[in-house]
Amino acid sequence: MEITAQQVNELRKQTGAGLMDCKKALQESNGDMEAAIDFLRKKGQKVSAQRADREAKEGVVIAQTNDNGKTGVIVNLACETDFVAKNEEFISFAQSIADNALKIDVSDLEGLLEANLNGSSLKNKLTDQVGKIGEKIEVTKYEKMEGDCIIPYIHAGYKIGVLVALNQPKSDAVQQIGKDIAMQIAAMSPIAVDKDDVEQSVVDRELDIAREQVRAEGKPEDMIDKIAMGKLNKFYKENTLLNQQFVKDGSKTVNQVLKELDPNLTVVQFKRIALGS
User: How far apart are CA 210 and CA 206, in angstroms?
Assistant: First the structure.
């Protein structure tokens, strides 16, 4: 049957696929719009399979909260090239995923992929994007956080996303210090909030390394554990958020800055996602 320009434009409007792809899809499906959409989706699935071994290390990271600041999400939408990552439509698609994640009760990536996004699952929407763009497109990481006050931060043109949860309700002062700390997390990449939050396997590894370093320096055996503990404390100061030097004032720790605002104010948790990590 003859396919009209109006049909092609309508299919293109619904799917975002190219004109020739839309025309072929309509021809293959005898002008049936729904069948044509399925045809394009199948094409996208084929492209996705062909590019499954490609690395999607470019993309964008979106971090944001709902209006009351008590729920936050980070979404990493990945692609293959920087060219696609900088496309406004791609960024808008990533934003729509984050917006939807804030509205639904889904805490893990698998659930997010199955959740409805504008009439279809996110998994299907990603397949559509693969068919349209011709690159591997995937959501590689997803985090959701709830608390008294969640502060979001996006760093370096969507390259790093951070959420930080404070233990007091949102106020101008709490928001400002929360943003400063979120910037600290983006820049310094701490591994935990405080030393007690560091996994025991990490502590054991650092102590083993420190002991070997001390032995290599020829220190007496009875001094090894003491010196190793000193090295471990230095590790805590460099790698746990509350003990790090505050990037805006190196004379203070992050914990000291928080206590200056309010003796009871502290960080409850944080999430940090960097592109390609």
Answer: 6
| Superfamily of the domain at 5-50 | Ubiquitin-associated (UBA) domain (1.10.8.10)
DSSP codes, 177-197? HHHHHHHHHHHH--SBSSGGG
Task: Give residue 134's region: left, alpha or beta (phi > 0; psi -120 to 50).
Answer: left
Contact, 145 vs 163, CB < 8 A?
yes
Which of these CATH numbers, 1.20.1260.10, 3.30.479.20, 3.40.50.150, 3.30.1330.60, describes 58-163+269-274?
3.30.479.20
Residues in the chain where the model's pLDDT stays below 50: none
Q: pTM score, two decimals?
A: 0.82
| Residue-level pLDDT at 51 | 73
Is residue 112 within 8 A of residue 26, CB to CB? The reply is no
Q: Where are the domains of the chain?
A: 5-50, 58-163+269-274
